[in-house]
User: Fold this.
Amino acid sequence: MKIICIGRNYTAHIKELENERPTDPVVFIKPDSSVLPKEQDFYIPEFSDNIHYEVEVLVKIKKVGKHIDKKFAANYYDEIGLGIDFTARDLQSELKEKGLPWEKAKGFDGAAVLGKWVAKSNFKTVDNINFSLLKNNEVVQKGNTGLMLWKIDELIAYVSQFFTLKKGDVIFTGTPAGVGKVVVNDYLCGVLENEEMFTLNIK
Ligand code: ZN
Assistant:
């Protein structure tokens, strides 16, 4: 499977990182080796002093598709999830400055946290789902999928122009404002509507 990630999909987060508002979605990929195994703690890697959490709504692709029309995009997923796009912000800033790819900052082992999956049919619409991230029991990020610059079906249409989507692929749909650093002994908890989707210890 592959993990396709969208950057800069929420206005407030674009502002906090002082990025420009994109005219097309920002897209990058994490390798399958970046998935943090279930029930495992997240270990801060040695090459970074500034690992950031980014909570994001996830979409799991259920069948092969290419050049998917937006109006048929909903046929390609049944499950919605929540996860973390861990980012070595120090390394990413360095790479960005040099105009180099971000993979080392975004695709390292453990950088993709996938929580549990829930049926899309649980929601009236996927474009109005509330989600949040708690760090040490305090809310640090809060979002709603209605605030995305590109909604889920538009993202599927867009990325499938470049990449054939396959069964089991996961799309990270971008993070809202409030990203921040994790330190050893932090405890993260992701919530989608009122359901706990993952918990995680930082080591
Ligand atoms: Zn992200």
Notes: The first helix runs from residue 11 to 16.
